[in-house]
Amino acid sequence: MSGYLRRAFSYRNMLWVRASRVVCARDVSSVQMCDSSRVFTIPAERNFFAESRRAYAKGRKSRDEGGVSTIEVPPNVGPTIKANAVSQMEAAMAALSAELSKLRTGRASPGMLDHIIVETSGLKMPLNRLAVVSVLDPKTLSVNPYDPETLKQLENAIVSSPLGLNPKSDGERLIAVIPPLTKEHMQAMTKLVAKSCEDARQSIRRARQKAMDAIKKLYSSLPKDDIKRLEKEVDDLTKKFIKTAEDVCKAKEKEVSQG
Q1: Structural domains counted in the chain
Q2: pLDDT for the residue numbered 37
Q3: Do residues 110 and 133 lie in contact, with contact meaning Cβ atoms separated by under 8 Å?
Q4: How far is CA 99 from the centre of its chain?
Q5: Can you tell me whether residue 183 is helix, strand or coil?
Q6: pLDDT one-digit tens code per residue, 8-27
Q7: Which domain holds residue 38?
Q8: Which residues of the chain have pLDDT under 70?
Q9: How many separate helices (H) and strands (E) can be counted in the chain?
Q10: Is the domain of 186 the same as that of 252?
Q11: Same domain, 170 and 211
Q12: What is the pTM of this model?
Protein backbone atom coordinates (compact mmCIF):
# COMPACT_ATOMS: atom_id res chain seq x y z
CA MET A 1 0.00 0.00 0.00
CA SER A 2 2.75 2.44 0.94
CA GLY A 3 4.60 1.72 -2.30
CA TYR A 4 1.52 2.53 -4.30
CA LEU A 5 1.13 5.90 -2.58
CA ARG A 6 4.77 6.84 -3.23
CA ARG A 7 4.39 6.09 -6.96
CA ALA A 8 1.19 8.19 -7.12
CA PHE A 9 2.80 11.25 -5.49
CA SER A 10 5.85 11.00 -7.76
CA TYR A 11 3.66 10.91 -10.86
CA ARG A 12 1.71 13.99 -9.62
CA ASN A 13 4.92 16.00 -9.03
CA MET A 14 6.20 15.16 -12.50
CA LEU A 15 2.98 16.47 -14.09
CA TRP A 16 3.19 19.74 -12.05
CA VAL A 17 6.76 20.41 -13.16
CA ARG A 18 5.88 19.82 -16.85
CA ALA A 19 2.90 22.20 -16.58
CA SER A 20 4.97 24.95 -14.99
CA ARG A 21 7.60 24.62 -17.74
CA VAL A 22 4.91 25.06 -20.41
CA VAL A 23 3.67 28.24 -18.71
CA CYS A 24 7.19 29.60 -18.55
CA ALA A 25 7.82 28.90 -22.23
CA ARG A 26 4.61 30.57 -23.38
CA ASP A 27 5.26 33.88 -21.51
CA VAL A 28 6.84 36.01 -24.24
CA SER A 29 6.63 39.32 -22.38
CA SER A 30 9.18 38.19 -19.82
CA VAL A 31 11.85 35.57 -19.23
CA GLN A 32 11.14 33.16 -16.34
CA MET A 33 13.41 30.74 -14.54
CA CYS A 34 11.39 27.99 -12.97
CA ASP A 35 11.99 24.99 -10.81
CA SER A 36 9.72 22.73 -8.90
CA SER A 37 9.46 25.08 -5.90
CA ARG A 38 9.96 28.74 -7.12
CA VAL A 39 9.38 30.90 -10.19
CA PHE A 40 11.75 33.88 -10.93
CA THR A 41 10.52 36.51 -13.42
CA ILE A 42 12.89 38.93 -15.23
CA PRO A 43 11.27 41.69 -17.35
CA ALA A 44 12.03 41.69 -21.05
CA GLU A 45 14.84 44.14 -21.97
CA ARG A 46 12.69 46.69 -23.83
CA ASN A 47 10.05 46.90 -21.09
CA PHE A 48 12.72 47.03 -18.38
CA PHE A 49 14.37 50.19 -19.76
CA ALA A 50 11.02 51.85 -20.50
CA GLU A 51 9.88 51.27 -16.95
CA SER A 52 13.20 52.59 -15.64
CA ARG A 53 12.81 55.85 -17.59
CA ARG A 54 9.27 56.30 -16.35
CA ALA A 55 10.34 55.65 -12.76
CA TYR A 56 13.17 58.19 -13.06
CA ALA A 57 10.84 60.83 -14.52
CA LYS A 58 8.29 60.17 -11.81
CA GLY A 59 10.91 60.51 -9.09
CA ARG A 60 12.26 63.75 -10.61
CA LYS A 61 8.77 65.18 -10.79
CA SER A 62 8.08 64.33 -7.17
CA ARG A 63 11.33 66.01 -6.13
CA ASP A 64 10.39 69.13 -8.05
CA GLU A 65 6.93 69.20 -6.51
CA GLY A 66 8.47 68.68 -3.09
CA GLY A 67 10.38 71.93 -3.38
CA VAL A 68 13.86 70.42 -3.49
CA SER A 69 14.63 71.71 -6.97
CA THR A 70 16.23 75.17 -7.18
CA ILE A 71 15.16 78.21 -9.17
CA GLU A 72 17.05 78.76 -12.36
CA VAL A 73 19.27 81.87 -12.08
CA PRO A 74 20.25 83.89 -15.17
CA PRO A 75 24.02 83.74 -15.73
CA ASN A 76 24.31 87.56 -15.73
CA VAL A 77 22.54 88.15 -12.40
CA GLY A 78 25.79 89.08 -10.63
CA PRO A 79 26.79 91.82 -13.11
CA THR A 80 23.22 93.11 -13.06
CA ILE A 81 23.25 93.51 -9.29
CA LYS A 82 26.58 95.33 -9.43
CA ALA A 83 25.44 97.54 -12.29
CA ASN A 84 22.36 98.60 -10.33
CA ALA A 85 24.48 99.37 -7.28
CA VAL A 86 26.94 101.42 -9.35
CA SER A 87 24.08 103.37 -10.94
CA GLN A 88 22.61 104.26 -7.54
CA MET A 89 26.01 105.21 -6.11
CA GLU A 90 26.78 107.40 -9.12
CA ALA A 91 23.41 109.12 -8.61
CA ALA A 92 24.43 109.83 -5.00
CA MET A 93 27.68 111.38 -6.23
CA ALA A 94 25.82 113.51 -8.78
CA ALA A 95 23.48 114.77 -6.05
CA LEU A 96 26.49 115.59 -3.86
CA SER A 97 28.19 117.57 -6.63
CA ALA A 98 24.97 119.50 -7.25
CA GLU A 99 24.67 120.40 -3.57
CA LEU A 100 28.29 121.47 -3.24
CA SER A 101 28.06 123.63 -6.35
CA LYS A 102 25.38 125.70 -4.63
CA LEU A 103 27.72 126.73 -1.82
CA ARG A 104 29.48 130.02 -2.24
CA THR A 105 33.14 130.13 -1.50
CA GLY A 106 35.70 132.83 -2.10
CA ARG A 107 36.27 131.53 -5.64
CA ALA A 108 34.01 132.08 -8.63
CA SER A 109 32.21 129.00 -9.94
CA PRO A 110 29.58 128.95 -12.70
CA GLY A 111 27.58 126.25 -10.90
CA MET A 112 27.04 128.43 -7.84
CA LEU A 113 24.15 130.21 -9.62
CA ASP A 114 22.42 127.12 -11.06
CA HIS A 115 20.00 126.72 -8.16
CA ILE A 116 18.71 130.31 -8.36
CA ILE A 117 15.11 130.50 -9.60
CA VAL A 118 14.16 133.42 -11.84
CA GLU A 119 10.58 134.58 -12.37
CA THR A 120 9.91 135.99 -15.82
CA SER A 121 6.66 136.40 -17.78
CA GLY A 122 4.79 134.66 -14.97
CA LEU A 123 7.03 131.58 -15.14
CA LYS A 124 9.68 130.38 -12.68
CA MET A 125 12.77 128.85 -14.26
CA PRO A 126 16.33 127.95 -13.16
CA LEU A 127 18.85 130.66 -13.98
CA ASN A 128 20.97 128.33 -16.10
CA ARG A 129 18.03 127.95 -18.53
CA LEU A 130 17.83 131.70 -19.07
CA ALA A 131 21.50 132.67 -19.21
CA VAL A 132 25.05 131.44 -19.70
CA VAL A 133 27.24 131.81 -16.60
CA SER A 134 31.01 131.97 -17.12
CA VAL A 135 34.06 132.77 -15.01
CA LEU A 136 35.98 135.94 -15.93
CA ASP A 137 38.58 135.45 -13.19
CA PRO A 138 38.76 133.61 -9.84
CA LYS A 139 36.72 136.38 -8.22
CA THR A 140 34.31 137.42 -10.99
CA LEU A 141 31.30 135.85 -12.75
CA SER A 142 29.63 136.89 -15.99
CA VAL A 143 25.92 136.26 -16.60
CA ASN A 144 24.87 136.53 -20.28
CA PRO A 145 21.08 136.23 -20.80
CA TYR A 146 19.69 134.50 -23.87
CA ASP A 147 17.02 137.22 -24.00
CA PRO A 148 18.21 140.75 -23.08
CA GLU A 149 14.69 141.52 -21.85
CA THR A 150 15.26 139.20 -18.88
CA LEU A 151 18.37 141.04 -17.65
CA LYS A 152 16.54 142.86 -14.85
CA GLN A 153 14.77 139.72 -13.63
CA LEU A 154 18.10 137.89 -13.51
CA GLU A 155 19.67 140.68 -11.47
CA ASN A 156 16.79 140.69 -8.96
CA ALA A 157 16.95 136.92 -8.54
CA ILE A 158 20.72 136.97 -7.85
CA VAL A 159 20.43 139.80 -5.35
CA SER A 160 17.57 138.00 -3.55
CA SER A 161 19.54 134.74 -3.24
CA PRO A 162 21.40 133.88 -0.02
CA LEU A 163 24.76 134.07 -1.81
CA GLY A 164 25.31 137.68 -0.85
CA LEU A 165 26.14 138.81 -4.39
CA ASN A 166 25.44 142.26 -5.82
CA PRO A 167 25.83 142.02 -9.64
CA LYS A 168 26.15 145.09 -11.87
CA SER A 169 24.73 145.45 -15.37
CA ASP A 170 26.69 146.80 -18.31
CA GLY A 171 23.61 146.80 -20.56
CA GLU A 172 24.12 143.35 -22.07
CA ARG A 173 25.23 141.18 -19.19
CA LEU A 174 25.66 141.05 -15.42
CA ILE A 175 29.04 141.17 -13.71
CA ALA A 176 29.10 139.62 -10.23
CA VAL A 177 32.17 140.06 -8.03
CA ILE A 178 32.58 137.36 -5.39
CA PRO A 179 33.18 139.03 -2.02
CA PRO A 180 35.51 137.39 0.50
CA LEU A 181 33.86 135.09 3.02
CA THR A 182 33.42 136.17 6.61
CA LYS A 183 34.41 133.85 9.43
CA GLU A 184 30.75 133.12 10.21
CA HIS A 185 30.06 132.36 6.57
CA MET A 186 33.00 129.96 6.45
CA GLN A 187 31.72 128.08 9.47
CA ALA A 188 28.24 127.86 8.02
CA MET A 189 29.59 126.59 4.69
CA THR A 190 31.77 124.00 6.43
CA LYS A 191 28.73 122.61 8.24
CA LEU A 192 26.78 122.41 5.00
CA VAL A 193 29.65 120.55 3.33
CA ALA A 194 29.78 118.04 6.21
CA LYS A 195 26.01 117.51 6.00
CA SER A 196 26.14 116.99 2.24
CA CYS A 197 28.95 114.48 2.67
CA GLU A 198 26.99 112.49 5.27
CA ASP A 199 23.91 112.47 3.03
CA ALA A 200 26.01 111.06 0.19
CA ARG A 201 27.48 108.35 2.46
CA GLN A 202 24.01 107.28 3.56
CA SER A 203 22.77 107.12 -0.05
CA ILE A 204 25.76 104.98 -1.03
CA ARG A 205 25.19 102.64 1.93
CA ARG A 206 21.52 102.29 1.01
CA ALA A 207 22.59 101.25 -2.48
CA ARG A 208 24.92 98.68 -0.89
CA GLN A 209 22.13 97.31 1.30
CA LYS A 210 19.81 96.90 -1.67
CA ALA A 211 22.52 94.96 -3.51
CA MET A 212 23.15 92.74 -0.47
CA ASP A 213 19.42 92.03 -0.13
CA ALA A 214 19.34 90.96 -3.77
CA ILE A 215 22.36 88.70 -3.22
CA LYS A 216 20.72 87.04 -0.20
CA LYS A 217 17.93 85.83 -2.44
CA LEU A 218 20.53 83.84 -4.40
CA TYR A 219 21.85 81.84 -1.41
CA SER A 220 20.01 78.69 -2.50
CA SER A 221 20.81 79.14 -6.20
CA LEU A 222 24.53 79.98 -6.44
CA PRO A 223 27.65 78.36 -4.98
CA LYS A 224 28.91 79.87 -1.73
CA ASP A 225 32.16 80.98 -3.36
CA ASP A 226 30.25 82.98 -5.99
CA ILE A 227 28.08 84.56 -3.29
CA LYS A 228 31.10 85.62 -1.23
CA ARG A 229 32.88 86.99 -4.29
CA LEU A 230 29.82 89.04 -5.27
CA GLU A 231 29.42 90.41 -1.75
CA LYS A 232 33.08 91.41 -1.64
CA GLU A 233 32.79 93.21 -4.99
CA VAL A 234 29.80 95.21 -3.72
CA ASP A 235 31.70 96.08 -0.53
CA ASP A 236 34.69 97.24 -2.57
CA LEU A 237 32.41 99.44 -4.68
CA THR A 238 30.90 100.93 -1.52
CA LYS A 239 34.30 101.78 -0.06
CA LYS A 240 35.44 103.28 -3.36
CA PHE A 241 32.44 105.59 -3.72
CA ILE A 242 32.47 106.66 -0.07
CA LYS A 243 36.16 107.56 -0.33
CA THR A 244 35.46 109.55 -3.51
CA ALA A 245 32.64 111.44 -1.78
CA GLU A 246 34.85 112.22 1.22
CA ASP A 247 37.68 113.43 -1.03
CA VAL A 248 35.30 115.76 -2.91
CA CYS A 249 34.00 117.18 0.36
CA LYS A 250 37.50 117.69 1.75
CA ALA A 251 38.43 119.63 -1.39
CA LYS A 252 35.31 121.78 -0.95
CA GLU A 253 36.11 122.43 2.71
CA LYS A 254 39.63 123.49 1.71
CA GLU A 255 38.17 125.84 -0.89
CA VAL A 256 35.85 127.35 1.74
CA SER A 257 38.63 127.80 4.28
CA GLN A 258 40.77 129.66 1.76
CA GLY A 259 38.04 132.26 1.39
Answers
A1: 3
A2: 46
A3: yes
A4: 25
A5: helix
A6: 445 444 444 444 444 444 44
A7: 2-65
A8: 1-76, 259
A9: 6, 8
A10: yes
A11: no
A12: 0.59
